[in-house]
Specification:
Blueprint (H helix, E strand, L loop, with lengths): L3 E6 L3 H10 L8 E5 L2 H13 L3 E7 L8 H9 L8 E6 L4 H9 L5 E4 L4 H19 L12 H10 L1
Parallel strand pairs: 1-2, 1-3, 3-4, 4-5
């Protein structure tokens, strides 16, 4: 079973704790990591890459000291080592221009506004992680309890 990580980035500890709590059902299949800055996220990505681990999903706030979420996700999108890593921008402070940049430059997979609905966040994460696993050609069976069944069925029907 591949080691697949989820990184959550938010400079507000209470918000970060809430995101991690909402994603806790995924703990049985994926490792959840929380960091408070874009630089910490980049360091963690480097560490995972050096250890041969995959990062399936990054959920990032936008407005943070030391670098915005759009800048962070845009840099990740341009790094071939993280091709296929799914990205969610979770914010309440992005402007229309920020959102356009996130879609065009950071190639985000989803945008959720704060405050978010925990069920929507979890369902979105499941769908994106299912796509990540199927697109990478990873054996999906060990992850079945955490995957989105409708997305999985769609992939299996098409192949």
């Amino acid at each position: 079973m591949e080691k697949i990580n989820i990184i959550c980035v938010d400079d507000q500890p209470e918000v970060l704790d809430s995101v991690l709590r909402d994603l806790r059902p995924l703990n049985s299949c994926f490792r959840l990591e929380g960091v408070e800055s874009a630089s910490e996220c980049r360091e963690l990505l480097e560490e995972f890459d050096q250890d041969g681990e995959l990062t399936g999903l990054i959920i990032s706030d936008h407005v943070m000291p030391g670098g915005s979420g759009v800048e962070l996700l845009g840099g990740i999108a341009k790094d071939d080592r993280f091709a296929g890593t799914r990205k969610i921008l979770l914010t309440g402070q992005a402007t229309h221009a920020d959102t356009i940049q996130a879609v065009n430059d950071a190639h985000i997979d989803n945008y959720l506004e704060k405050p978010w609905d925990p069920a929507v966040l979890l369902a979105t994460a499941r769908k994106l992680l299912t796509r990540f696993i199927m697109d990478k050609g990873i054996d999906h069976m060990p992850y079945m309890s955490c995957l989105d069944q409708a997305t999985l069925l769609d992939y299996l029907r098409r192949n």
